[in-house]
Amino acid sequence: MERGIFITFEGTDGSGKTTQIEILKTVLEKMGYNCIFTREPGGTLLGEELRKIILSKDFGNMLPETEAMLYAACRAQHVEEVIRPALKQGKVVLCDRYIDSSVAYQKYGRKLGSMVEKINEFAIHGTMPDKTFLLMLDPNKSKDRIVRELDRLESEPYEYHDRVYKGYEKIAEENPDRVVRIDGEKSIECIAEIIIEEVRKII
Ligand SMILES: Nc1ncnc2c1ncn2[C@@H]1O[C@H](COP(=O)(O)OP(=O)(O)OP(=O)(O)O)[C@@H](O)[C@H]1O
Ligand SMILES: [Mg+2]
Question: Closest Cα partner for 188 from 26, 1, 71?
Fold first, then answer.
């Protein structure tokens, strides 16, 4: 069975994920690859509805456990409906946030522990990225880059975002083969070059 390539982009808010996915997609399409660009939370009709709930400031009292399960629910739908079918068709799947976001934001940020990995394993049934680009940018600096209104999670205090940042560092240390950690302060062009270089190795 033909198997595509699954690439995820991770990092703090405003670290440059979407910018880099768009560049990579353009480059890969010029090279003749069939790519899809999708995002989490969201990516499906049901998932986009859940995204609104997850990010809405109307739910300031949302429990960390509820939050973690909503993200996982969204992901289960996304993997089954979008990611796995595209991979089966041999496509390159570029995904803006995936399981590492739950580990960084819910396990470490919300201090929910290893249950986060368990519910996510249940959601993804083994569909893990071939490569993950992790853009690391100090939470203070990344916030300055966001010009739109901050969502429910982005509005959390510095200490929370610092735990998320450190969580991402841990994820990179624990997954050296999969996760490519990139300094988000480098220029857009420089980061794009690093990413393309890495993608060439696996494509
Ligand atoms: N390497 C960079 N250096 C300076 N500015 C950058 C860099 N990468 C992206 N930016 C700018 O920072 C802003 C946020 O970038 P982008 O939307 O790609 O980040 P993101 O990680 O997708 O953020 P979000 O969490 O909001 O989805 C944009 O205005 C973008 O042009
Ligand atoms: Mg983005």
Answer: 26
